[in-house]
Amino acid sequence: MLCAICMSIFFRGTLNGPHHLDKQSIATAAKNGCRMCLNIHSPADDFIPPLEYAISWSIGTEMHYLILIRPVTIHKDMTESKEWQFYINASADANAPPGYEEFLSQVTADLKSDPCGVQSRFPPLRDIPDSTGHENVAKLAKHWLESCKADHECEQRCGQQRRNWHPGRLIEVGSPQKKPRLVNREDAQLEGGYAALSHCWGPNPNFLMLKTDNESEFRREIPIEKLPASFRDAIVTCRRLDIPYLWIDSLCIIQDSRSDWLLQSEEMFKVYLNCELNIAIDASASAHEGAFRKRDPRCLQDCCVWTPFFKPQGHDTQFIADENEFESIDDFAWAREEAPLTKRAWIFQERLLSPRTLYFSSDRISWECGLKRSITEYLPFSNDNALGRGFDVTFVAQYTIPENGTLFDFYDFVDLYTDRELTFPDADKLVAFAAVARRCASWFKGDYCAGIFRDTMPWGLLWQTPSLEWSLEWMTRSQTWRAPSWSWASMDCCVRGDLIPTEQNTDLAKVVDVSVELVDPNNPFGQVKSASLALTGPLVTIDALVYSDCQTTQEDLPPRIGWENGTSALGHHFELRPDESFEWNGSDSIDTWLSKHKDAFFLAVGESQYVRSKDELPKTCGLVLKKLDDGNYIREGQWNGRFGFVDNHAQTACEFHTETITIL
Q: Could you tell me which residue ranges the Heterokaryon incompatibility domain spans (predicted)?
């Protein structure tokens, strides 16, 4: 449903024009149920100046366009500049339904007499409950679940191992007449599947949990009235979906037993991999906020407009007849990336491993599985296009971990994982990623060593921290030792891989030995006590490389965002990126940094002829190291130079010397 003013955008035939003129006009249209104005209107806005619309096609997909609603001018009474975005999914083959011409005539008349009025005949209104906790909403979720189980084979797509596998403990959800209870895999004949819950604990959690002293009581019954709202809502959802069991971390792992936590965390990947459904409570920042939400049903009514519109063709435009399906930002899966739950690092593996997920968001439920990525109550069919792609694992086609992958794919996972938050990073950094790493183990040979597969070394060591341009304040390594400096897990910031296809690489460094002492010797993907890495490779001090007295010949090196360019004593350029922000003061030059770190070392790791674009050059890659008093080294950053950088400095005062070193 759209008001007459918003409808006029679609039949004006222009790429820009006037919209609502003031806050009251928008408020009235929103009250009448206009889909666009409901998104724009906010009681917190004291003032909204006259607005205009502008239409853009430059969003990557020919059959989509973007409508921007923005102030005509920035007004002095506005506290900040605002812009609202609405996406339109255009279908060129759709014919307008019977009676639509008369409907448009009424809208045209309203534009003069009642511009904030909303005509609701097209499409016909649906009966939408005013809460996500309504039984009819659960019926829709059950339909999605049954359709997926019957037609999609998502268990096989995600690599599910055993259909009848169950975790060590589960909650038997019971019925409205029968309270839930804790059951043990060894003590009970478990029949039927189970759901797993993804939720935010919240700060200072004080809700009912499984402890050593209440386990026997929980086996008799769990007092549902004492559980936080999110747990109660998840139990109700399982009952409505006919799923007999539910796994909740705080009720299925003994919270005051370190040994039980280690035991259960070892098979955590199986919990989500083998569940029938993952229930994700997106919008709640704590367990007390619950899954079910009151909502305005008008925001979920279908909103389609049949009208001629513009389609780009070369430098001109042509008129075509389209069905235009209106979609606001909330209608896309990637809007979920800002939800409280998605910001949790633990949720990354839960979402990636589960065969299917039912999301409870602020005003709707939505569905995600191996074949359908963005089904919601508003979008009845999957929105699988690039615009609605959602979970942005850029180089993975489905929301699962494929059977085969590369080092590039692995660091794509690391990038997305490390961009999320951990309440206890020193304890959980490796553990919360363990299930993903375990599933990726089939991609590589050799051991998993504190976050990096040995088979990927030495190139797997070339991870990098974010660009200095925008993340100076939070590029830090943990003050408490939890991983060696050569592992991405030692960092408290987002980490990505600046990696290139291995078939076009030449190793300059060779791994001699990797030693890792585990907290739990039976879990190579878990916490680490200590680790060291022995390498043989070309090494040179910054003092010798940059400050030797040599005859220079300058070469060109195109600058890259986030890297700082330096020059060797021979005039060969290199790029430098420190791991930690305190190592770099944005007001200092690269020369100042180098002069303060003359005793640091450049280790050359490898060379590659591969380039991703005409602006990129073949290169030499390496690590920046600091030598400790005991003769060992720690990582401080990464560097790149032109292909042949090591050979170009041979037999000079800047020469690299091959040494065997140990990095801690």
A: 194-350
